[in-house]
Amino acid sequence: MSGKLILVRHGETEGNVAKILDTTVPGLPLTERGVAQAKTFGSSLLAPPTALFSSAALRARQTAGYIEATTGVTSAVLDGVYEVQVGEMEGRSDAEAHEIFQRTYRAWHDGDLAQRPPGGESGHEVLARFLPAIENLRAEYLGGADAGDIVVVTHGAAMRLVTRSIAGVRPPFTTNNHLDNTDAIELAPRVDGGWECLRWGRFVPPFTYDVAPHADDPMG
Question: 2 - beta bridge partners?
Answer without folding.
Answer: none
